[in-house]
Amino acid sequence: MLLSYHLDAAHLVVELGEVVDLDNEAAIEREIVRLLPCCGPRAIIVDLHTPLLTPRALGLLLRVRGQAADRGVSMAVVAGYETAREVLSAPGLPRTLRVAPTLPAAEFRNRGCRPERETTRKGEPGDRRSAPPADGAARRVLGPYADTSRPRFPGVR
């Protein structure tokens, strides 16, 4: 039903060329989930070959992404059509689904990405999930824009 192929040893590409509606939603989801490997490629890329993205297609992509994350597989979506990218530009979706305009861009977005479960991550000092540092402890600066209230001069730290 769906065309799928290995881009390389780490990426499986699934081409979705039809509009997802009530009649075919369950079959497409079953097929993609069946292709999710338990110990093969680390990433799956869903390549949308249709400009029309229905609400059912969005729900399908989000459910498949969740099932892929449960199996330790990251997922990206290729939206080659501008109308599909507009639908996928809703807040949070580009980051959640790793939306890319081309297949090489999707491969790049998945490079080195492995989904982590929130429950397995441990808060480290300075992490927003950990307790605030003690009064006497030094605060760690996190990036170049962490403290913008101080003036910056070249060569002065």
Describe the protein.
With 157 residues, this protein is of the alpha/beta class. The chain contains five helices and five strands. It has a five-stranded mixed β-sheet with strand order 1-2-3-4-5. A hairpin with a 4-residue loop joins strand 1 and strand 2. The longest helix is centred in the middle third of the chain and has 16 residues. About 10% of the residues have low confidence.
List the helices and strands and how they pair.
Blueprint: E1 3-6, E2 11-16, H1 25-35, E3 43-48, H2 55-70, E4 74-79, H3 82-87, H4 93-97, E5 99-100, H5 103-110
Parallel strand pairs: 2-3, 3-4, 4-5
Antiparallel strand pairs: 1-2
Helix pairs in contact: 1-2
Global mean pLDDT? 77
Number of strands: 5
Could you give a short account of the major beta sheet?
5 strands, mixed
Proportion of residues in extended strands: 15-25%
Keywords:
alpha/beta, globular, 5 strands, 29% helix, 157 residues, 5 helices, 5-stranded mixed sheet
